């Protein structure tokens, strides 16, 4: 039995390492090839005594939601000429999708929409730099997966 115990432990470790590597490669691919979208932010307090300086991100598109939404689905947005996303609708699947529209995958829990990028940590003492933040910049792939890449001011400059 002891002989099989180490085989099982090593097999589980190998599976775990493969899973993490696939996840990292997926995020790297989104960063490299994903479409840039700016999501307008709603104001929220950027301080946490336990975690240091960070900004909890609340997006304007999250305010367009209601309790009839499914727990998982896609927000359909239409980027303008500055890549600022305008909310179009929420839907359970990837289709239908009209020309120019982009999918952003979400989960909906406790009356809150979560697109997977709800906080942004920054170096302690740099809070003033982020006072002018207006947009959260994400890169999105064609399946709606997103990665937060930074914060932008009202002039669409990355902070």
Order of helices and strands: HEEEEEEEEEEE
Main pleated sheet: 4 strands, antiparallel
| Apparent shape | globular
Number of helices: 1
Low-confidence stretches: none
Q: How much is the average pLDDT?
A: 84
Sheet with the most strands: spatial strand order:
4-1-10-11
Strand content: 35-45%
Going by helix content, strand content and strand pairing, the class is alpha+beta
Termini separation? 57 Å
Number of strands: 11
Radius of gyration: 19 Å
Domain count, please report it. 2
Question: Percentage of helical residues?
Answer: 10-25%
Oligomer: single chain
Write the layout of secondary structure elements.
Elements: H1 2-33, E1 35-42, E2 47-48, E3 52-56, E4 58-59, E5 72-79, E6 85-91, E7 102-109, E8 112-114, E9 119-121, E10 133-140, E11 146-153
Antiparallel strand pairs: 1-4, 1-10, 2-3, 3-9, 5-6, 5-7, 7-8, 10-11
Question: Features of this protein?
Answer:
4-stranded antiparallel beta sheet, globular
Question: What does the model show?
Answer:
The protein is α+β, with helices and mostly antiparallel strands and about 160 residues long. It has two domains: about 1-35; about 35-155, no CATH class. Helix content is about 20%, strand content about 40%. It contains one helix and eleven strands. It has one helix at about 1-35; strands spanning about 35-40, 45-50, 50-55, 60, 70-80, 85-90, 100-110, 110-115, 120, 135-140, 145-155. The strands form three sheets. Strands 4-1-10-11 form a four-stranded antiparallel β-sheet. A four-stranded antiparallel β-sheet has the order 6-5-7-8, with no helix packed on it. Strands 2-3-9 form a three-stranded antiparallel β-sheet, with no helix packed on it. Strand 5 and strand 6 (about 85-90) form a beta hairpin. It is globular. The termini are far apart.
